[in-house]
Amino acid sequence: MKKLYAIAITTAALALGSFQLQAAETIRFGTEATYPPFEFLDDNNEVTGFDIDLAKAICAEIKAECTFSTQPFDSLIPGLKYRRFDAVIAGMDITPARQKQVDFSMPYFENSASFVAAKNKSFKSANDLTGKAVGVQNGSTFQTYMIDKFEKQGVTVRPYETIQNAFLDMTNGRLDAVFSDTAVANDWLLEQGKGDYSRMGEVIRDADYFGVGYGIAVRQKNPLKSKIDDALTTLKNNGTWQKIHDKYFPEAR
Ligand code: ARG
């Protein structure tokens, strides 16, 4: 009888032990994966990119498991608030407006904004866009900026669910320009623009709209923020960040 009892306790303890092993923290990331080189689907339909490699490296540091789900960009902050995921990594600008809703990690990537247009349109600056149509990603900081700064000047601002669809509409002649992240514009120019398109005018940095770089968003006051920040500091210091950067931005080497 005593022996059986002991066996039962041992089994329970073993079960508990393995449960604890499996119960390592899981961080569910939300993203919008049509944004190369930050997040996109590879040939096997797996989400990949600079942000994804960085998130995986953070999870390795924290000893957490990472999962990724992809959603429309404008639903990422609502999804985070409704706990559909624990963090958002999506080339997301740390802006004052968003900071009212979520907390951000320290900046992990320096950002700026750029227009792309056909070379033969020979627009010199955004002021030449009066009466023209410009595509932006729905819910992005570019949309807010264009509406605030250019709509009253007679520019039509067209929101797209993905920036790739905006680029496509530009190549089909339905848009005169696309306004997006400089790094994403550069990637598109290299991969698809094929010499007929280029960046137009100056790179724009306006912290009121585009914030202070990209950050990983978490729910307000979530202690996950400081774990992510500590991991980011380590990855910056030990060269991992740079390695991931060079993988996705080889021209910067
Ligand atoms: N940087 C812009 C913003 O924060 C656009 C980001 C879009 N990201 C994406 N994964 N589609 O609003």
TrEMBL record:
Domain Solute-binding protein family 3/N-terminal per the UniProt entry, residue ranges: 26-252
Domain Ionotropic glutamate receptor C-terminal: 26-251
Signal sequence annotation: 1-23
Gene3D superfamilies assigned to the protein according to its UniProt record, in alphabetical order: Periplasmic binding protein-like II
SUPFAM superfamilies with a match to the protein in the record: Periplasmic binding protein-like II
Pfam families registered for this protein in UniProt: SBP_bac_3 (PF00497)
Transmembrane segments: none
Key words, A-Z: Periplasm, Signal, Transport
PROSITE patterns: SBP_BACTERIAL_3
Location in the cell: Periplasm
Domain of life the protein comes from: Bacteria
InterPro entries for the chain: Iontro_rcpt_C (IPR001320), Lys_Arg_Orn-bd (IPR005768), SBP_3_CS (IPR018313), Solute-binding_3/MltF_N (IPR001638)
Keyword Aminoacyl-tRNA synthetase: no
Family classification: Belongs to the bacterial solute-binding protein 3 family.
Protein name: Lysine/arginine/ornithine ABC transporter substrate-binding protein
